[in-house]
Design a protein that fits this description.
With 105 residues, the chain is α+β, with helices and mostly antiparallel strands. The chain contains three helices and five strands; from the N terminus they run E-H-E-E-H-E-E-H. Strands 1-5-4 form a three-stranded antiparallel sheet, with no helix packed on it. The chain has a two-stranded antiparallel ribbon with strand order 2-3.
Length: 105
Amino acid sequence: MYGEPALPSKESLLPFFKRHKVMSTTRSDCMYNLIMLEVPKSKYLGVLGADGTLVGSIKLVIRPSNLPCYKMSESSIRSIQSSYHKQTMADDVGGEDEWFSGTYY
């Protein structure tokens, strides 16, 4: 679960946690406004159904953590990059962009 634009305070979330019988929370090391919730199996769908709940002016975004993560193969990435590069070169008839003739960094 994460909050947009930020995670609400712990005190603001307590009623939500009690209603959904949250057993534990773990704060993410990677994202400042992300926490993982542990809930009983019987409350799982209820928590997912609470996606979009407003706590004050903060929107809660709730997603399951067991979604698979798909990664593209390196060959697919190179193929897309090559295709994009060819298209960009075809669109760039005059060589340099007309709106900017400075140095690219």
